[in-house]
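Q: Please design a sequence for this.
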């Protein structure tokens, strides 16, 4: 009996595992994007499972062209904890779903950072309008008065 070549067996196993992972991610994307996407129109073509699992790999030039807007590695980060009113928390979920329609999944921190960048780039009139329509809320915690 001929012994199998370990390199060939390992390569084949790795390829099978990679395919299984791609299938799982495509199923998850399909479920999540259908849940968050508006109703499909008849004009949209129906894609097969094989088409969905094919992912175009970026060329080395495209990899270099990607711009990172976040903090650079080694740059200090400040951890902060704050709370949202229920309506704002619901708005976070709505924005996350909206981003999913464009193929980008965002967490709460990323949404807040995106909003900060948008406010920073807003024109003066837009910023003033936003300030006038912004409703400030009471602080959730009142500071305790210390007895002297």
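A: Design:
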């Amino acid at each position: 009996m001929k012994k199998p070549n370990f390199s060939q067996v390992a390569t084949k196993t790795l390829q099978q595992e990679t395919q299984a992972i791609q299938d799982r991610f495509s199923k998850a994307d399909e479920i999540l994007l259908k849940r968050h996407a508006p109703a499909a129109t008849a004009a949209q073509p129906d894609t097969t499972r094989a088409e969905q699992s094919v992912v175009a790999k970026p060329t080395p030039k495209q990899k270099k062209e990607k711009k990172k807007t976040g903090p650079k590695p080694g740059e200090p980060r400040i951890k902060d904890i704050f709370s949202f009113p229920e309506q704002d928390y619901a708005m976070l979920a709505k924005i996350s779903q909206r981003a999913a329609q464009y193929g980008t999944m965002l967490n709460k921190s990323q949404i807040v950072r995106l909003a900060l960048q948008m406010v920073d780039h807003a024109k003066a009139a837009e910023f003033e309008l936003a300030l006038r329509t912004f409703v400030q809320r009471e602080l959730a915690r009142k500071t305790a008065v210390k007895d002297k």
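Q: Thanks. Anything notable?
A: The chain has six helices and no strands. The longest helix spans residues 6-36.
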